[in-house]
Amino acid sequence: MSQPPLKIGVLIGSVRPGRFADKVSQWFVSEIGRRDDMETHVIDLSEPALAGELKLTLERSAAPDDAPALAERIGGLDGFVVVTPEYNHGYPASLKLAIDYVYREWRAKPVGFVSYGGMAGGQRAVEQLRQVFAELHAVTLRDTVSFHMAWEQFDDEGRPHDTDGTSKAASVLLDQLAWWGLTLREGRAARPYDG
After folding, report:
1. How far apart are CA 126 and CA 121, in angstroms?
2. Cα–Cα distance, 177 to 163 (Å, whole number)
């Protein structure tokens, strides 16, 4: 019996003007597009509607229920890949705000990471994000895709110079995401998670 494709959210964590996230996320979305077991749902925190919702939530010191559009989008997905830069040895504040203002919707779902930055390639941001998602009862994947000195790794059209190596790394991550995504989706359907 054929399973419906997993609904995978690609969460773009940077909202800075001129951000490098566009190249990285567009490449990664194209990698998911090669598969028939997943469908991509991009959640770009710089989208005006989401940015406005998060800004309002922050200004009002509101509860997670005051971010309904983001919660609804997160809740309808089977798994996630967070595309994050590393800013000052950490991840962007916009990403933290978005994660914190959605709660139950993260539970018992897998989260993978594509990071980029300077010498560390965003790995310090990923290590911090693992702790945050563990607190939300999400399952983080072991393998990541990381771009060290990211601005040197892509051509002018947004393609990685090392197409074979990056595609292989993406494939490993997506295979893990597929296993966890399907397993946890079936588990949630058989017995709702309320941990």
Report:
1. 10
2. 21
**Regions of the chain where pLDDT drops below 70:** 1, 53-68
Q: In angstroms, rounded to a whole number, what is the distance separating the alpha carbons of residues 18 and 37?
A: 32
**Alpha carbons 85 and 115: distance in angstroms, whole number:** 6
Q: Is the pTM of this model over 0.85?
A: yes
At CA 185, angle to CA 122 and CA 133, rounded to 5?
Answer: 30
Q: Which residues of 68-84 are buried (b: 16+ CB within 10 A; e: fewer)?
A: eebbebbeebbbbbbbb
Please provide residue 108's backbone torsions phi and psi, each rounded to the nearest 5 degrees: 55, 40
Structural domains in the chain plus CATH codes: 6-48+70-186 (3.40.50.360)
pLDDT tens per residue, range 18-60: 999 999 999 999 999 999 999 999 999 988 777 776 665 555 5
CA 45 to chain centre: 11
Query: DSSP of 132-165, one letter per residue?
Result: HHHHTT-EE-S--EEEETGGGTB-TTS-BS-HHH
**Residue 171 corresponds to which tokens in the numbers above?**
């494939």
CA gap 42, 124 in Å, rounded = 24
CA distance 171 to 152: 22
Structure confidence at residue 69 (pLDDT): 79
Structure tokens at 182: 């399907």
